[in-house]
Design goal:
Blueprint: H1 3-26, H2 32-44, H3 58-81, H4 86-92, H5 96-107, H6 114-132, H7 140-163, H8 172-195, H9 197-205, H10 209-236, H11 239-242, H12 249-260, H13 267-289
Helix pairs in contact: 1-4, 1-10, 1-12, 2-3, 2-8, 2-10, 3-7, 3-8, 4-12, 5-7, 6-13, 8-9, 8-10
Protein backbone atom coordinates (compact mmCIF):
# COMPACT_ATOMS: atom_id res chain seq x y z
CA UNK A 1 0.00 0.00 0.00
CA UNK A 2 1.05 3.57 -0.60
CA UNK A 3 1.71 5.73 2.44
CA UNK A 4 -1.51 7.75 2.17
CA UNK A 5 -3.55 4.55 1.93
CA UNK A 6 -1.84 3.15 5.01
CA UNK A 7 -2.95 6.32 6.81
CA UNK A 8 -6.50 5.76 5.55
CA UNK A 9 -6.34 2.16 6.79
CA UNK A 10 -5.22 3.34 10.22
CA UNK A 11 -8.08 5.86 10.37
CA UNK A 12 -10.65 3.16 9.55
CA UNK A 13 -9.21 0.76 12.13
CA UNK A 14 -9.27 3.41 14.87
CA UNK A 15 -12.76 4.67 13.94
CA UNK A 16 -14.24 1.16 13.94
CA UNK A 17 -12.37 0.16 17.10
CA UNK A 18 -13.73 3.18 19.02
CA UNK A 19 -17.20 2.42 17.64
CA UNK A 20 -17.85 0.00 20.51
CA UNK A 21 -17.11 2.65 23.14
CA UNK A 22 -19.62 4.95 21.43
CA UNK A 23 -22.23 2.19 21.58
CA UNK A 24 -21.60 1.65 25.29
CA UNK A 25 -21.88 5.39 25.98
CA UNK A 26 -25.03 5.73 23.89
CA UNK A 27 -26.72 2.86 25.73
CA UNK A 28 -26.36 4.68 29.05
CA UNK A 29 -29.27 7.02 28.25
CA UNK A 30 -30.94 5.43 25.23
CA UNK A 31 -32.42 1.92 24.76
CA UNK A 32 -30.83 -0.36 22.14
CA UNK A 33 -33.48 -0.29 19.40
CA UNK A 34 -33.92 3.47 19.67
CA UNK A 35 -30.14 3.91 19.43
CA UNK A 36 -30.13 1.76 16.29
CA UNK A 37 -32.98 3.80 14.80
CA UNK A 38 -31.17 7.07 15.45
CA UNK A 39 -27.92 5.71 14.03
CA UNK A 40 -29.44 4.92 10.64
CA UNK A 41 -31.68 7.98 10.62
CA UNK A 42 -28.67 10.28 10.94
CA UNK A 43 -26.51 8.16 8.61
CA UNK A 44 -29.19 8.10 5.90
CA UNK A 45 -30.40 11.69 5.82
CA UNK A 46 -29.43 13.81 3.99
CA UNK A 47 -26.90 11.44 2.32
CA UNK A 48 -29.78 9.54 0.68
CA UNK A 49 -30.54 12.54 -1.53
CA UNK A 50 -26.98 12.74 -2.86
CA UNK A 51 -26.28 9.06 -3.53
CA UNK A 52 -28.14 7.18 -6.27
CA UNK A 53 -29.80 3.88 -5.40
CA UNK A 54 -27.36 1.05 -6.09
CA UNK A 55 -28.26 -1.18 -9.07
CA UNK A 56 -29.56 -3.93 -6.79
CA UNK A 57 -33.10 -5.32 -6.84
CA UNK A 58 -35.39 -3.91 -4.15
CA UNK A 59 -35.99 -7.40 -2.77
CA UNK A 60 -32.27 -7.93 -2.17
CA UNK A 61 -31.88 -4.43 -0.76
CA UNK A 62 -34.68 -5.02 1.77
CA UNK A 63 -33.35 -8.43 2.83
CA UNK A 64 -29.86 -6.95 3.17
CA UNK A 65 -31.13 -4.08 5.31
CA UNK A 66 -33.05 -6.48 7.58
CA UNK A 67 -30.09 -8.80 8.18
CA UNK A 68 -26.94 -6.69 8.17
CA UNK A 69 -28.56 -3.64 9.82
CA UNK A 70 -31.73 -4.52 11.75
CA UNK A 71 -30.59 -7.99 12.84
CA UNK A 72 -26.93 -7.23 13.44
CA UNK A 73 -27.31 -4.02 15.39
CA UNK A 74 -30.42 -5.03 17.33
CA UNK A 75 -28.61 -8.08 18.70
CA UNK A 76 -25.31 -6.23 19.20
CA UNK A 77 -26.87 -3.30 21.07
CA UNK A 78 -29.06 -5.62 23.13
CA UNK A 79 -26.05 -7.78 23.93
CA UNK A 80 -23.94 -4.85 25.07
CA UNK A 81 -26.78 -3.54 27.20
CA UNK A 82 -27.20 -7.04 28.67
CA UNK A 83 -23.60 -7.20 29.87
CA UNK A 84 -21.26 -7.76 26.92
CA UNK A 85 -18.11 -5.64 27.41
CA UNK A 86 -17.26 -3.31 24.54
CA UNK A 87 -13.77 -4.74 24.06
CA UNK A 88 -14.88 -8.38 23.91
CA UNK A 89 -17.78 -7.39 21.65
CA UNK A 90 -15.31 -5.95 19.13
CA UNK A 91 -13.55 -9.32 19.10
CA UNK A 92 -16.57 -11.66 19.07
CA UNK A 93 -18.12 -9.71 16.20
CA UNK A 94 -15.18 -10.75 14.01
CA UNK A 95 -16.59 -14.29 14.07
CA UNK A 96 -18.75 -12.98 11.21
CA UNK A 97 -15.94 -14.22 8.96
CA UNK A 98 -16.80 -17.81 9.85
CA UNK A 99 -20.56 -17.28 9.68
CA UNK A 100 -20.00 -15.79 6.22
CA UNK A 101 -18.14 -18.92 5.15
CA UNK A 102 -20.73 -21.28 6.66
CA UNK A 103 -23.64 -19.55 4.91
CA UNK A 104 -21.68 -19.31 1.64
CA UNK A 105 -20.91 -23.06 1.74
CA UNK A 106 -24.57 -23.95 2.29
CA UNK A 107 -26.13 -21.36 -0.02
CA UNK A 108 -23.56 -20.62 -2.73
CA UNK A 109 -21.82 -23.98 -2.73
CA UNK A 110 -18.40 -22.56 -1.90
CA UNK A 111 -15.71 -25.01 -0.82
CA UNK A 112 -13.88 -25.33 2.47
CA UNK A 113 -10.11 -25.03 2.45
CA UNK A 114 -7.69 -26.48 4.96
CA UNK A 115 -6.86 -23.11 6.53
CA UNK A 116 -10.59 -22.39 6.96
CA UNK A 117 -11.08 -25.57 8.98
CA UNK A 118 -8.06 -24.92 11.22
CA UNK A 119 -9.05 -21.29 11.73
CA UNK A 120 -12.63 -22.25 12.58
CA UNK A 121 -11.56 -24.88 15.13
CA UNK A 122 -9.18 -22.48 16.89
CA UNK A 123 -11.73 -19.68 16.97
CA UNK A 124 -14.53 -21.93 18.23
CA UNK A 125 -12.24 -23.06 21.05
CA UNK A 126 -11.52 -19.42 21.84
CA UNK A 127 -15.23 -18.57 21.81
CA UNK A 128 -15.96 -21.51 24.12
CA UNK A 129 -13.32 -20.31 26.59
CA UNK A 130 -14.66 -16.75 26.58
CA UNK A 131 -18.26 -17.96 26.83
CA UNK A 132 -17.45 -20.13 29.84
CA UNK A 133 -16.03 -17.11 31.71
CA UNK A 134 -19.40 -15.70 32.74
CA UNK A 135 -20.02 -13.36 35.61
CA UNK A 136 -18.11 -10.29 36.63
CA UNK A 137 -17.64 -8.34 33.43
CA UNK A 138 -19.68 -10.51 31.03
CA UNK A 139 -23.05 -12.27 30.97
CA UNK A 140 -24.01 -15.36 29.00
CA UNK A 141 -26.99 -13.59 27.42
CA UNK A 142 -24.77 -10.70 26.34
CA UNK A 143 -22.30 -13.13 24.78
CA UNK A 144 -25.08 -15.07 23.03
CA UNK A 145 -26.71 -11.96 21.61
CA UNK A 146 -23.35 -10.73 20.29
CA UNK A 147 -22.82 -14.06 18.54
CA UNK A 148 -26.29 -13.70 17.02
CA UNK A 149 -25.26 -10.24 15.77
CA UNK A 150 -22.15 -11.73 14.15
CA UNK A 151 -24.33 -14.40 12.50
CA UNK A 152 -26.61 -11.70 11.04
CA UNK A 153 -23.54 -9.82 9.77
CA UNK A 154 -22.15 -12.96 8.13
CA UNK A 155 -25.51 -13.76 6.52
CA UNK A 156 -25.75 -10.19 5.26
CA UNK A 157 -22.29 -10.50 3.71
CA UNK A 158 -23.42 -13.48 1.63
CA UNK A 159 -26.66 -11.72 0.67
CA UNK A 160 -24.59 -8.74 -0.47
CA UNK A 161 -22.38 -11.01 -2.54
CA UNK A 162 -25.39 -12.74 -4.11
CA UNK A 163 -27.27 -9.50 -4.74
CA UNK A 164 -24.37 -7.85 -6.57
CA UNK A 165 -23.69 -10.69 -9.00
CA UNK A 166 -23.95 -9.40 -12.55
CA UNK A 167 -24.67 -5.77 -11.65
CA UNK A 168 -22.58 -2.84 -12.96
CA UNK A 169 -19.99 -1.25 -10.64
CA UNK A 170 -21.37 1.12 -8.02
CA UNK A 171 -20.34 2.97 -4.88
CA UNK A 172 -20.30 0.80 -1.77
CA UNK A 173 -21.22 3.88 0.26
CA UNK A 174 -24.50 4.15 -1.66
CA UNK A 175 -25.33 0.56 -0.71
CA UNK A 176 -24.55 1.31 2.95
CA UNK A 177 -26.82 4.38 2.94
CA UNK A 178 -29.75 2.79 1.09
CA UNK A 179 -29.62 -0.42 3.14
CA UNK A 180 -29.52 1.82 6.21
CA UNK A 181 -32.69 3.57 5.01
CA UNK A 182 -34.42 0.19 4.86
CA UNK A 183 -33.58 -0.38 8.53
CA UNK A 184 -35.11 2.83 9.93
CA UNK A 185 -38.82 1.91 9.92
CA UNK A 186 -38.42 -1.70 11.24
CA UNK A 187 -36.11 -0.53 14.04
CA UNK A 188 -38.41 2.38 14.93
CA UNK A 189 -41.49 0.12 15.06
CA UNK A 190 -39.68 -2.51 17.15
CA UNK A 191 -38.47 0.18 19.54
CA UNK A 192 -41.92 1.81 19.76
CA UNK A 193 -43.69 -1.44 20.68
CA UNK A 194 -40.95 -3.21 22.68
CA UNK A 195 -39.21 -0.36 24.48
CA UNK A 196 -42.36 1.74 24.75
CA UNK A 197 -43.67 5.13 23.75
CA UNK A 198 -42.82 6.55 27.16
CA UNK A 199 -39.11 5.92 26.54
CA UNK A 200 -39.22 7.83 23.28
CA UNK A 201 -41.06 10.70 24.92
CA UNK A 202 -38.58 10.86 27.80
CA UNK A 203 -35.49 10.78 25.56
CA UNK A 204 -36.84 13.35 23.10
CA UNK A 205 -38.06 15.60 25.92
CA UNK A 206 -34.70 15.69 27.67
CA UNK A 207 -32.01 14.50 25.23
CA UNK A 208 -28.65 13.53 26.66
CA UNK A 209 -25.58 15.15 25.11
CA UNK A 210 -23.69 11.89 25.64
CA UNK A 211 -26.26 9.91 23.69
CA UNK A 212 -26.43 12.56 20.98
CA UNK A 213 -22.64 12.50 20.64
CA UNK A 214 -22.69 8.70 20.46
CA UNK A 215 -25.32 8.79 17.69
CA UNK A 216 -23.29 11.33 15.72
CA UNK A 217 -20.18 9.15 16.04
CA UNK A 218 -22.03 5.96 15.04
CA UNK A 219 -23.76 7.60 12.08
CA UNK A 220 -21.10 9.85 10.57
CA UNK A 221 -17.80 8.34 11.68
CA UNK A 222 -18.41 4.59 12.04
CA UNK A 223 -20.94 4.35 9.18
CA UNK A 224 -20.32 7.03 6.54
CA UNK A 225 -16.63 7.83 7.01
CA UNK A 226 -15.61 4.29 8.00
CA UNK A 227 -17.38 2.49 5.17
CA UNK A 228 -16.60 5.27 2.71
CA UNK A 229 -12.85 5.00 3.30
CA UNK A 230 -13.04 1.19 3.38
CA UNK A 231 -14.77 1.19 0.00
CA UNK A 232 -12.01 3.47 -1.36
CA UNK A 233 -9.37 0.97 -0.22
CA UNK A 234 -11.26 -1.92 -1.81
CA UNK A 235 -11.43 0.02 -5.06
CA UNK A 236 -7.64 0.41 -5.11
CA UNK A 237 -6.38 -2.94 -3.81
CA UNK A 238 -7.46 -6.60 -3.91
CA UNK A 239 -9.75 -7.75 -1.09
CA UNK A 240 -7.01 -10.15 0.04
CA UNK A 241 -4.83 -7.13 0.84
CA UNK A 242 -7.54 -5.04 2.54
CA UNK A 243 -9.54 -7.68 4.47
CA UNK A 244 -6.79 -8.68 6.95
CA UNK A 245 -6.67 -5.08 8.19
CA UNK A 246 -10.03 -5.66 9.91
CA UNK A 247 -8.24 -8.03 12.29
CA UNK A 248 -6.68 -4.97 13.93
CA UNK A 249 -10.08 -3.56 14.93
CA UNK A 250 -10.45 -5.79 18.03
CA UNK A 251 -6.97 -4.73 19.19
CA UNK A 252 -8.08 -1.07 19.13
CA UNK A 253 -11.47 -2.00 20.59
CA UNK A 254 -10.11 -3.99 23.52
CA UNK A 255 -7.26 -1.62 24.38
CA UNK A 256 -9.40 1.53 24.12
CA UNK A 257 -12.20 -0.05 26.16
CA UNK A 258 -9.70 -0.88 28.87
CA UNK A 259 -8.34 2.68 28.91
CA UNK A 260 -11.60 4.62 28.54
CA UNK A 261 -14.17 2.37 30.22
CA UNK A 262 -11.88 0.58 32.66
CA UNK A 263 -12.89 -2.84 31.30
CA UNK A 264 -10.74 -5.77 32.36
CA UNK A 265 -10.68 -9.28 30.99
CA UNK A 266 -9.61 -12.37 32.86
CA UNK A 267 -6.59 -14.51 32.05
CA UNK A 268 -8.81 -17.17 30.45
CA UNK A 269 -10.65 -14.58 28.38
CA UNK A 270 -7.27 -13.29 27.20
CA UNK A 271 -6.30 -16.83 26.20
CA UNK A 272 -9.60 -17.19 24.32
CA UNK A 273 -9.03 -13.86 22.59
CA UNK A 274 -5.59 -14.97 21.43
CA UNK A 275 -7.03 -18.23 20.04
CA UNK A 276 -9.73 -16.30 18.15
CA UNK A 277 -7.21 -13.86 16.67
CA UNK A 278 -4.90 -16.68 15.58
CA UNK A 279 -7.86 -18.54 14.10
CA UNK A 280 -9.01 -15.47 12.19
CA UNK A 281 -5.50 -14.83 10.92
CA UNK A 282 -5.19 -18.40 9.63
CA UNK A 283 -8.66 -18.16 8.11
CA UNK A 284 -7.85 -14.97 6.18
CA UNK A 285 -4.24 -15.45 5.06
CA UNK A 286 -3.46 -19.05 5.98
CA UNK A 287 -3.48 -20.13 2.35
CA UNK A 288 -0.39 -17.98 1.77
CA UNK A 289 1.39 -19.62 4.69
CA UNK A 290 0.58 -23.03 3.24
CA UNK A 291 2.11 -21.96 -0.04
CA UNK A 292 -1.11 -22.41 -2.01
CA UNK A 293 -1.02 -20.79 -5.42
CA UNK A 294 -3.95 -20.27 -7.79
CA UNK A 295 -4.04 -22.89 -10.50
CA UNK A 296 -3.21 -21.68 -14.00
CA UNK A 297 -5.61 -22.43 -16.79
CA UNK A 298 -4.33 -23.29 -20.27
CA UNK A 299 -5.77 -21.11 -22.97
CA UNK A 300 -6.69 -22.95 -26.16
Amino acid sequence: MQRQDLVISLIVIIVWGLNFIAIKVGLQDMPPLMLGTMRFLFATFPALFFLPRPPVAWSWLIILGLTINVGQFSFLFWGMQAGMPAGLASLVMQSQAFFTLLVAVVWLGEKWQFNHVIGLILSVCGMAIIGSEQGGNMTVIGFGLTLAAAACWGTGNVIMRRATIGVPPFSMLSLVVWAGAVAIIPLALLSWFIEGQAVWAAVLRAPSWKSFGAVIYLAFFATLIGYGLWAKLLSRYPAAVVAPLALLVPIVGMSSSSLVLGEQISLWQTAGAVLIMVGLLIHVIGDRWLGRRPQKTNNP
